[in-house]
Amino acid sequence: MTDGLHGAFRIVGGHPALDLVNTVSPRLRGGASEHDYLTSPAELLAWSRKIELIDLRDFSAVEGTWRMAPALAAKALGATLEIREAVYDELAPRADGAVVAADGVKRGAGSAFERLMLRWSAAAARSMLIPVPDRDRGVAELVIGTSPAQLIPDRLVTAAVELVRTVELRQLRACPVQDGGCGWLFLDRSRNGSRRWCAMEDCGTRAKIRKLGERRRYLRTS
User: Fold this and answer.
1) What's the pLDDT tens digit per position in 54-86?
2) What is the DSSP letter of 9?
3) For a tag on the chain, would you pick the N or C end, based on fewer CB atoms within 10 A?
4) How many CA atoms lie within 13 A of 80 on its CB side?
5) C-alpha angle with apex 161: 133 to 19, nearest 5 degrees?
6) Would you say 153 and 169 are in contact if contact means Cβ atoms under 8 Å apart?
């Protein structure tokens, strides 16, 4: 997984739902993207394994189901993209450093919540509460994603609902597009809250190189 902005696809969000949001680059609210990492069920499957949303057993089950029923694979991809955009529409306006394109975003927060709620309700209907004896804490386990066809979007919407319920907004950041960043969202859990870039070795380094070049050009012409 590579593109022009991120030589090697980085997992930088600090939460699966933010990692999902960051499968588009650059991330500019209301603007066009140059690259989408999730344009096919195969890419979705590979990405889900990369972020450890699924294990090898899940991978085999989902891949086999999707291979036998391509229509179900397309449906799962569509659901995932809807979840992705709903999370972004809801959180981007609250992220420090986020940039809104001139035409803005036509979907409001209420619509974002409605889309997440509908997807989460469907995921909950496919989940199971399984008794687990002989444990020190709890007597049951909630299994999300009992249907291989919808396992990935079900787990992602559950993660998304958890994030919008618990996110500490003071930690929510956007890699600064206006300074050459990609707009990806991440949680700044640094001790002094000073993290600015999605990854210093990626967007941060490019910004430093660009500023150095601008300084040298200025000195040559001054």
Assistant:
1) 999 999 999 999 999 999 999 999 999 999 999
2) -
3) C
4) 34
5) 105
6) no
Q: Which residue matches tokens 């500490």? A: 168
**Integer Cα distance of 17 and 120 in angstroms:** 13
Strand-pairing partners, residue 29, are: 100
pTM of the model: 0.85
DSSP, res 6 = -
CA–CA separation, 43 and 49 (whole Å): 10
Higher pLDDT, 93 or 149: 149
Place of tokens 């444990």: 135
Query: What are the C-alpha distances in Å from 6 to residues 42, 46, 132, 177?
Result: 20, 17, 43, 14
For residue 86 the two structure tokens come to 């709903």
Q: What is the DSSP letter of 180?
A: T
Tell me the per-residue pLDDT of 86-110, one tens digit each, with 9 for 90 and over. Answer: 999 999 989 988 776 544 454 555 6
Residue where the block lists tokens 């979007």: 153
Looking at residues 14-26, what average pLDDT do you find?
Answer: 95
Burial call 9-30: b when 16+ CB within 10 Å, e when fewer:
bbebbbbbbbbbbbbbbbbbbe
CA pseudo-torsion sign 98, 99, 105, 108: positive
Three-state secondary structure call for residue 71: helix
